[in-house]
Amino acid sequence: MKQYDYLIVGAGLFGAIFAYEARKRGKKCLVIDRRSHVGGNIYTKEVEGIQVHQYGAHIFHTSDKEVWDYIQKFAEFNRYTNSPVARYKTELYNMPFNMNTFNSMWGVMTPAEARSKIDEQIADAGIKEPKNLEEQALSLVGRDIYEKLIKGYTEKQWGRRATELPSFIIKRLPVRFTYDNNYFNDKYQGIPIGGYTQIIEKLLSNIEVHLDKDFFANRAEFAAQADKILFTGMIDEYYNYCYGELEYRSLRFETEILDCENYQGNAVVNYTEYEVPFTRIIEHKHFEFGSQVSSINPKTVITREYPAEWNRGDDPYYPMNDDKNNDLYAKYRLLAEKEHNVIFGGRLGMYKYFDMHNIVSEALKCVKTNLY
Ligand code: FAD
Ligand code: UDP
Known about the structure:
It is a single chain. The protein has 372 residues and is α/β, with parallel strands linked by helices. The protein contains 13 helices and 16 strands. Among the domains are: 4-42 and 191-247 and 319-370, Rossmann fold; 97-170, no CATH class. It has helices at residues 13-24, 65-72, 99-106, 111-125, 133-141, 143-158, 168-171, 197-203, 219-224, 235-238, 323-337, 346-349, 356-371, and strands at residues 4-9, 29-32, 44-47, 50-53, 60-62, 85-88, 91-94, 188-190, 208-210, 226-231, 248-258, 268-271, 280-283, 300-309, 318-319, 342-344. The strands form 4 sheets. A 7-stranded mixed β-sheet has the order 7-6-12-13-14-11-15. The model has no long low-confidence stretch (mean pLDDT 96). The site of flavin-adenine dinucleotide (FAD) has 35 residues, from helix 1, helix 12 and helix 13.
């Protein structure tokens, strides 16, 4: 008899949901994380009375009622709607691409005028079947928007030419012929009042959690304690990079507390020029509508997000889901399928650019497959 039914590597959203559901079904779990806090990349922390999204802006959005109902059990959500503003040199544009953007770009007023301007630029680009991100963008919104709002941001974010990137990355962004600045098309959207960490803490309550513990520092000893392992770290690292390294993109966050009540007037401002080294600045108080503004002690917290190359030992924030890496992942996946006692889950374990709603849905699927 081993001490635990499950060893769960990673106290992020995937690991925490699995642990919660396993405990509900009478399984004894040990959760470990190499970081000194729970929550993985959705971790939030209170600073100056403001919930700070420690690893970048996190907005929950989904059209799946089951996912929305599930996450609501662990926090009350506000009505935050993501509406970033993009800065290109001295120009400001609303995101995602909509009538407000088209009006600022070309002075057009009606959807028909905007459509005709974009169609003209799409025809000039002459792309029949887009083969990469640049071609996809040019055939979706034309050259002006591509040059000012997409190319620079994308190339610094991913550290590659837009012609070398897969087009799916840009397909996340809506193009609309209405005056609607909502970044997402989903039915439900919001941010948990009081931050995301409470969700993870509730999911993990009454479960043994050991922080600052790296699975690889003591692999055999950890594995010996449980019948099964749920692994939400990097799948290539789990297999000692035996087929080679998968590629990731990393980030560096620079957070500052400022003596100012309102720094940029919006939660998210994107800097789309290549020459500005960061991609966006987030001002955390606006995720909760500046409700923490105090005229007695006016402070705000901002974070600049700098894209960075990933090297072993760095935080792997984004999988690079192009064909080369997806093929390599498929080889690791074959190894994973032969395992009887190890399950892989989450953004790193499944090597997929998953948002939180995808994680909830995948974790619940994983529960059904493994715990029913
Ligand atoms: P993670 O959160 O990465 O958790 C994995 C955990 O495993 C980590 O805590 C890690 O420390 C631990 N771990 C890894 N290896 C080991 C090891 N060897 N030993 C011990 N512990 C280990 N999603 C949205 O829906 N909306 C957004 O607005 C949004 N914005 C984002 C912005 C940024 C900058 C980033 C990077 C992501 C964003 N996401 C967003 C995606 C969201 O963060 C992920 O979908 C989610 O956090 C993935 O959860 P996870 O549990 O799979 O992984
Ligand atoms: N993007 C862009 N300009 C912007 C914002 C986004 O070109 O102002 C592109 C960029 O390639 C980015 C992708 O759209 O990687 C997805 O953006 P999103 O904001 O959804 O990315 P995430 O929040 O996951 O980093």
